[in-house]
Amino acid sequence: MARTEFDIVVIGGGAGGLVVAAGGASLGAKVALVEKRRLGGDCLWTGCVPSKTLIKSAQVAHAMRHADRWALSPHDPKPNLARVMERVASVIRGIEPNDSPERFRSLGVDVILGDGRFVAPDTFEVNGRRLTAKTFVIATGSRPAMPPISGLATAGALTNETLFELPDAPPSLAILGGGPIGCEMAQAFARLGVEVTLVEAVERILPREEPEASAVITEALAADGVVV
Fold first, then answer.
1. CB of 133 within 8 A of CB of 6?
2. What's the chain's average pLDDT?
3. Most-buried pick from 7, 44, 70, 119 (CB within 10 A)?
């Protein structure tokens, strides 16, 4: 068998790929990491970090309105969604260096930015360079899918890739899908002053959870002003 250039080639620089690349390098493996856009993946740019930052602002706004629960004077903070989104972007910028190419190169990982393809079972080509490896890890992640609803494609619908780029509060927001992400975004935006309607195709939200849990969350969303 011909000698390979790398022990591991990781394709995809999101959370999974970064963990594999850093872990492999720390154990002495020769690692290459290929990413076609930017390191960090959904978690940093369109998932965990922006959503939890938004939720925290919404939680604080809710606590201020209901401060009497803690024997304090309640106050409506009148949230400014543009400022909240600025904070979301700031938090992303603060974490970004931890996922940067420079950091991973400092760990000994050969970071290659570009789109590639397999040209042989043990060879991945990117930017005209052919990477050979004993092991390939495909961590290319996912992307949002638009449901087959007539007119949706031309209605300017948002996804997780564009939701956190809203420049200001929309007058109203319809969220399609009553799963965990739909519910948490519905509650967060409602607490930040947006009129929210949450739409679920089956008979209740959170259909994979116990009915009792679904009922509790439905009541909590209604208390925050969400129309389910």
1. yes
2. 95
3. 44
